[in-house]
Specification:
Blueprint (H helix, E strand, L loop, with lengths): L12 H6 L7 H11 L5 H9 L9 E3 L10 E3 L2 E2 L16 H8 L5 E6 L6 E6 L10 E6 L5 E6 L2 H6 L5 H4 L19
Antiparallel strand pairs: 1-2, 3-4, 4-5, 5-6, 6-7
Length: about 190
């Protein structure tokens, strides 16, 4: 997996500050899974062993229906690492539980990615059908549309394999949000 995803993460100071947590250990995974109440997908754990959270170089995912972000895709700002020391980690101050308790997001699983809307949509591992120990689907939840759930992928592995660059959508969007996401992140933060 390391070779397959060696160029997965963007290298920038803002990602280091907000998302990148200390390296993953088996003990940390057990602790975080216990706190969350869900078994994390193996593909998620393996990706976090390469780098524990951050901003993907490819941060868009195609959709078959419109969202508050765009007509044909969603975008993510960052992916939460396994831990609690960073605000944007699974059990950090703005981690998975925060979105359910403070913003009213449905308790369907684990919130793993935030989006450029600053809290108005999120990406989650949806355990509704598989139970807390199963292999969750990946969904987009849109707070702006009454917490509408949009299916994205059957698994986390499928989700990360099908992430696209924002440039692949720039010519297709007439949406005001269609600017380059990667341009938003520089070392000036």
């Amino acid at each position: 997996m390391k070779e397959k995803y060696k160029d997965f993460w963007m290298d920038c100071e803002w990602a280091e500050k907000e998302y990148v947590s200390k390296p993953v250990t088996e003990e940390l995974v057990v602790e975080i899974e216990k706190e969350l109440g869900y078994k994390l997908p193996l593909s998620y754990i393996e990706l976090m062993k390469i780098q524990n959270g951050g901003i993907p170089n490819r941060a868009c995912y195609p959709t078959t229906e419109a969202t508050s972000w765009a007509e044909d895709h969603i975008a993510i700002t960052g992916m939460f690492g396994i831990g609690k020391e960073k605000n944007s980690s699974l059990c950090g101050e703005y981690g998975s539980e925060f979105w359910s308790k403070e913003w009213g997001y449905p308790k369907i699983g684990v919130y793993i990615c935030d989006c450029p809307s600053a809290g108005h949509d999120m990406i989650a591992l949806d355990y509704t059908e598989c139970g807390s120990q199963g292999e969750p689907k990946v969904v987009h939840i849109d707070q702006e549309h009454n917490y509408k759930v949009t299916f994205l992928a059957e698994s986390f592995e499928e989700f990360i394999q099908n992430l696209k660059s924002d440039e692949e959508f720039e010519n297709n969007d007439s949406d005001e949000n269609s600017g380059s996401i990667s341009e938003s992140f520089s070392d000036d933060f």
